């Protein structure tokens, strides 16, 4: 199939690591705005969305927009719920309105939401138009670490959309940009070396280059050991499982992915595919059903949820 998974991204994803979940939280409102009826409706809708009740959430967002047609929070939340339902074109109409109504930090949130919406359909070139705006803004403000994470986020979208060259380019930009940060601490440097090797290993595996993938897996492990960052350790079995899957070693993929973060819908979807390839359909279906319980609006779920919905019929 065209798109599979990586937590970039995963890692940036790894955002992966520090990935921003666009799904549920409202942008902080001024205190005097918290009592507005429309804001209360959006908050209620977001709670329903987090419970998987997208239709009920949308009904509340519609009420909020009748009260305040240009309410940023309502358009952003509406787009998220529509994406989770699979109504991508309609969702993007609301994200466009959110971008137009955004102020301050809201702008980047809305732009990233739009990029994720295109990721649901594996349209990396469209997602790039919005991610690049966020990347440029962060780089211009000399937030080099934040810009690097956005580049990695775009790298992951490209990779899982099947654009391997675009993925390599964006991951490389992410690594190089992050290292522009003044006064680099060793742990920070090793973290980004881990992310860069992690990305290269996944790309090599997707190309079917086993030797290159193994070399980069070893480099990722060496950097991870030096980084002394326990929060990143969960991304290593994800890496080895991902590489094993794309190199056709489904037994190893299952074993390693089972050790990875089981609260990550992308990993569960990849695990489900590994089970399918091994002829274990019941276990695969269990994974896909679990994927559908996640209501996050981020790159990982953008690739996992459509696959799970298709597999479950």
Mean pLDDT: 91
Q: What does the overall shape look like?
A: globular
Q: Could you give the distance between the termini?
A: 16 Å
Radius of gyration from the alpha-carbon trace, in angstroms: 19 Å
Task: Give the biggest beta sheet.
Answer: none
Q: Structural class of the secondary elements? A: mainly alpha
Low-confidence stretches: 1-29
CATH superfamily: Tetratricopeptide repeat domain
The CATH level-2 architecture is identified as Alpha Horseshoe
Helix-residue proportion: 55-70%
Task: Please give the CATH class.
Answer: Mainly Alpha
Count of alpha and pi helical runs: 15
Give an overview in words:
The chain has helices spanning 37-50, 54-67, 72-85, 88-101, 106-119, 124-140, 144-160, 164-178, 186-207, 210-227, 235-246, 250-257, 265-277, 281-291, 299-312, and one strand spanning 13-16. By secondary structure, the chain is mainly α. It has one domain: Serine Threonine Protein Phosphatase 5, Tetratricopeptide repeat. Helix 8 (164-178) packs antiparallel against helix 9 (186-207). The longest helix is centred in the middle third of the chain and has 22 residues, at 186-207. It is globular.
């Amino acid at each position: 199939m065209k798109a599979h998974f990586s937590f970039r991204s995963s890692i940036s994803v790894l955002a992966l690591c520090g990935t921003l979940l666009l799904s549920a939280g409202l942008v902080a409102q001024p205190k005097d705005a918290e009592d507005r009826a429309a804001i209360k409706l959006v908050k209620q809708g977001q709670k329903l969305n987090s419970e998987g009740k997208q239709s009920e959430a949308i009904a509340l967002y519609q009420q909020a927009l009748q009260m305040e047609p240009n309410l940023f929070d309502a358009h952003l939340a509406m787009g998220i719920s529509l994406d989770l339902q699979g109504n991508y074109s309609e969702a993007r109409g609301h994200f466009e309105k959110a971008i137009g109504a955004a102020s301050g930090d809201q702008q980047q949130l809305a732009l990233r939401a739009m990029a994720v919406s295109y990721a649901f359909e594996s349209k990396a070139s469209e997602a790039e138009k919005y991610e690049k705006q966020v990347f440029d803004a962060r780089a211009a403000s000399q937030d080099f670490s934040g810009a690097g994470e956005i580049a990695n986020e775009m790298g992951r979208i490209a990779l899982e959309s099947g654009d391997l060259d675009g993925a390599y380019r964006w991951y490389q930009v992410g690594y190089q940009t992050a290292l522009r940060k003044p006064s680099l601490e060793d742990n920070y440097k090793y973290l980004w070396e881990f992310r860069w090797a992690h990305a290269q290993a996944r790309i090599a595996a997707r190309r079917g280059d086993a030797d290159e993938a193994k070399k980069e897996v070893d480099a990722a492990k060496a950097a991870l050991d030096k980084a002394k960052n326990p929060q990143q350790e969960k991304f290593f079995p994800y890496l080895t499982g991902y590489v094993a899957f794309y190199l056709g070693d489904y037994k190893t993929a299952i074993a390693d992915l089972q050790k990875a973060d089981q609260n990550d819908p992308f990993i569960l979807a990849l695990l489900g595919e590994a089970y399918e390839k091994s002829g274990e359909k019941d276990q695969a279906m269990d994974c896909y059903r679990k994927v559908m319980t996640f209501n996050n609006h981020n790159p990982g779920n953008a690739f996992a949820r459509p696959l799970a919905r298709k597999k479950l019929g």
